[in-house]
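Escalation from tier 1.

The customer reports that the assembly of two entities below gives different structure tokens on two consecutive runs. Tier 1 could not reproduce it. I'm attaching the input and our single run for tier 2 to review.
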Amino acid sequence: MSKLDETFSRIRSVERTGLVTYVTAGDPDLGRTGSILRTLDGAGADVLEVGVPFSDPLADGPVIQRASERARAGGTTLGATLKMVGDTRGALRAPVVIFSYANPILAMGSQTFAARARDAGVDGVLALDLPIEEAGDFRATMLDAGLDTIFLLSPTTSDARIKRAAELGRGFLYGISRLGVTGARTQLADGAEPMAARIRAQTQMPLALGFGVSTAEHVTAIGRWADAAVVGSAIVSVIEKSAGDATLESALAAYVQELTSGHEAP
Amino acid sequence: MTESSVISAPVFGQRDPDERGYFGAYGGRYVPETLVAPVEALEAAYREARSDPAFGRDLQHLLTSYVGRPTPLAAAGRLSAAVGGAQILLKREDLAHTGAHKINNALGQALLAVRMGKRRIVAETGAGQHGVATATACALLGLDCDVYMGADDMARQALNVVRMQLLGASVRRVEGGSRTLKDAINEAMRDWVTNVTDTYYLLGSVLGPHPYPLMVREFQSVIGREARAQCIEATGGVPDVVVACVGGGSNALGIFDGFLDDAAVRLVGVEAGGEAIAPGRHAARFAGGTMGVLQGTRSYVLQDAHGNIERTHSVSAGLDYAAVGPEHAWMRDLGRAEYTWVSDGQALHAFQELCRREGIMPALESAHAVAHAMTLAGTLGASARILVNLSGRGDKDVDSVAARLDHSSTADGGA
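Tier 1 run:
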């Protein structure tokens, strides 16, 4: 049983809604990312997604694009990200998922990446432009290294592909609740609930729903349909606003506590 | 000699990639999950359309009555005499409606969009020629059109920005990244992923996820089909060499397609050598690139050791892009096509030579092909024939050429 499996079975056993947080590595700098991850972990995040900055983040909205640019300006690479995770991992309770576009991983080499990620204590990998059709070799390499490969599902994903992603994926499935790029919204997409139901009809694998999630109400609503909510751009916005302040960590802790305040299932 | 041997229609279904959209090791479908179903639907619609004779007839009708095809093929007599050596022939895609080969693909895909029931088109553009062609096709067919264009490209191709607006398109300025073609594609894909239910993404080159590289090459194959027949009519045989510039590479694949089965015909793609083959100063993917994944496809890419895409530079906006079409990478591996580059300076020189010697003002993109043909001609005998795809006309480049010539004449004067 992987650490992600254990995490989701614990969430299910206490009937609460899990929280998956996303931050871009190196925003505002890599040392601070270590501190941010410890903060999110301590404040109650269940899974820590660590984004790898990339020159061409075509699935991301403006907030994460800017974070990626800040991180790249500071020289953050995939290799440096893995080193930071390795340095920080011992202090973290929650599993760590590397969230990357395919090209940095392919440039490092999947084998090298898998070995370095495993050594750094990474638990899972999500390559967002490697759909299941392109991920065959990649998934096998990750599996050999003991890393969970997480696949995305979207409102456009067919039932047959949902089934396939559940067979091939490990850890959890990441449901994109709306058409579009990453970014916080005031309201959850109308399609989120029917999409979760469609996924549930195909698989009982743990499901996290994201894209546009920013409030405790959103998290509570998602808890009715899925195992966990993913909050990304909203957290990155907090980092963007407070990057220069010593109060960043306390602001993040307060935000995570607010998001998880409605944790108990209704 | 009759016109009937020149057929102005694309060649469909002759050279498909494998079922996953790979040409050898290149191509594929590296897209975020939300776009998987739309590209699958696009592929199904395209396969259905190209097997329907009515679709081919509608397109052929537009290519002849609207685009003005076939475009002429003629010898560049004074240029050839000045250079010495082989005879240079020009396939005049610059004379196609809107002034470049881009219209061949834009009309084909716009007809497909209508067939799929999509009423809104998004597109990217670098030099602006694809944007103008798309805006034109949308005006003709009554479709809404948004064109993404990098802020730097909007400045250096200002004429085409106005043309697109006059044609009823909205030009959306892209300020992110390097503010050129690559960033315009990122924004167009973000738009598509958000509005995928009613929007058709009309990609302008042999790039992106399968089926775009196949589809765009097939829509451009009309160039090679015409050129081969015209060359035989005009000269009694196929040329010795076919030369075309390669940004994404659609005009090159379009003309190469007509000669692939003529094993003796050398096919040469010309990339943008920019200022120097050094990171950030050129766009010659086969000179400085490595295998990578960018914007949906696996091919040669200019990237750093960490997998981030390098900045590129070319005097020509249409060649200023970090990846090359996957089928080009495959043809290079197979040894069926060869690739070289010419510098900004060589392209500017060829631009002026073609103006003065032939009265033809080429696009700076096409000037790269002319420049290489001029070099090559001197190495071949007088009986050899080099066919150049003159992919577009240069009105759009007048301001940037004038600025560079002013600069260099000032520099010369001071020397």
